[in-house]
Specification:
- The chain is an alpha+beta fold.
- It has eleven helices and 13 strands.
- It folds into three domains: 128 residues, Translation, Eukaryotic Peptide Chain Release Factor Subunit 1, Chain A, CATH 3.30.960; 111 residues, eRF1 domain 2 (Nucleotidyltransferase, domain 5, 2-Layer Sandwich); 81 residues, Ribosomal protein L30/S12 (60s Ribosomal Protein L30, Chain: A, 2-Layer Sandwich), CATH 3.30.1330.30.
- It has a five-stranded mixed sheet with strand order 7-6-5-8-9, sandwiched between helices. The protein has a four-stranded antiparallel sheet with strand order 3-2-1-4, with helices on both faces.
- A hairpin with a 3-residue loop joins strand 5 and strand 6.
- The longest helix has 32 residues.
- It is globular and about 85 Å long.
- The two termini are 37 Å apart.
């Protein structure tokens, strides 16, 4: 998907502080269950543009030139959102940020729905993208010694994009060869097959991009395949999923992957929260509550900012992104942050 969302891109947006004017932030839902047709999307664009124009008139601390710039920005955003291909390549949500005085017109598309809303402020409104960032794009690569299948997308909407079946000889003696020579030939066929599969996955990474990778299949095959993955794929490897490579249906794959991803995410949240408790209890590298976290952010000491859903932490999120900190929106263990005010942080020092 074009216009992919990366930590660097988020940080660039968070650092934006126009000297003049305001930033117009517009989010549009592209969920195909509601906005599959051009007419439905056009109706939504019209509603968003109308809302944006009303909001501009309500801002009373702008100069005439700044008002005119915002009105022009609404027209630019309308053009972007009205493009016929806005929902192509699996996009399910789009955000557009515009500020003519700063030369800003930025579009971000994501593979899952975004809340439809308009914001006008001195900085881009990024919190919906931070929530969206947690819905990572996954690649699921199922492989055995002869066959492979590749799925892409967010877990509930994974799509099978590729199938591979390579000519690998069976493990019996054939054609008069000695058994050792024949076995070596079979193993070379398997290695060639796994090289093919690894190259296919890397091509998909370059063409469409994804955040995390799961492998599935016989464990001995997985181990051999993992050794053949490009380093960019290995750094995205999150674990394995148990599925029948050749016979698992698409819905079975989606259910199994969704469950496995939930386990992985919950485990990571629990690990981070354990580190947080240890840090707070020892008076060490952790902070809890908006006041303590804000102080640590001002000193650029935050390594990971933790935020519970529904907590107003936009300023803290922007500051964290500016300093290169990771932002983690908790979903599985959000209640654990309740006694801490819904905001906490692991510190660098």
């Amino acid at each position: 998907m074009a216009e992919t969302l990366t930590p660097h891109r988020l940080r660039q947006l968070a650092e934006l502080r126009p000297e003049q004017g305001r930033v117009l932030s517009v989010y549009m839902d592209l969920d195909p269950s509601e906005f599959a047709t051009p007419s439905a999307r056009n109706s939504l664009v019209t509603s968003l543009v109308t809302d944006a124009r009303h909001r501009i008139e309500e801002v009373d601390d702008l100069s005439h030139d700044e008002h005119m710039a915002l009105r022009a920005d609404v027209d630019l955003v309308q053009e972007v959102l009205s493009q016929p291909g806005i929902a192509d390549d699996g996009a399910r949500g789009v955000a557009v940020f515009a500020c003519s005085p700063a030369g800003l017109l930025e579009t971000v598309r994501v593979p899952h729905p975004l809340p439809t809303r308009v914001g006008i402020d001195r900085t881009p409104f990024l919190e919906p993208l931070l929530v969206a960032k947690d819905a990572e794009r996954w690649c699921v690569l199922l492989a055995n010694r002869r066959n492979a299948r590749l799925f892409l997308g967010v877990p509930p909407e994974l799509e099978e994009t590729d199938r591979v079946r390579d000519n690998v000889h069976s493990h019996h003696k054939q054609g008069g060869w000695s058994q050792p020579n024949y076995q070596r030939s079979v193993e070379e066929d398997v290695k060639d097959h796994l090289d093919h599969v690894a190259a296919m996955a890397f091509d998909r990474l370059k063409a469409r991009g994804f955040d995390r990778l799961l492998l599935g299949g016989p464990r001995e095959t997985q181990a051999e395949l993992e050794r053949r993955l490009h380093p960019y794929l290995r750094e995205r490897l999150a674990g394995e999923v148990r599925l029948d490579v050749e016979n698992a249906g698409a819905d079975e794959v989606r259910r199994a992957v969704a469950a496995r991803v939930s386990e992985i995410e919950a485990g990571r949240e629990a690990e981070v929260l354990d580190r947080l408790r240890q840090g707070i209890g020892a008076g060490g590298r952790a902070a809890a509550g908006i006041e303590a976290v804000t102080g640590a952010l001002e000193e650029a000491r935050v390594a990971t900012l933790l935020v519970a859903p529904g907590v107003d932490a936009e300023a803290a999120i922007e500051k964290a992104l500016e300093s290169g900190a990771e932002v983690m929106m908790l979903h599985h263990h959000a209640d654990d942050l309740g006694p801490l005010g819904g905001v906490a942080a692991l510190l660098r020092y």
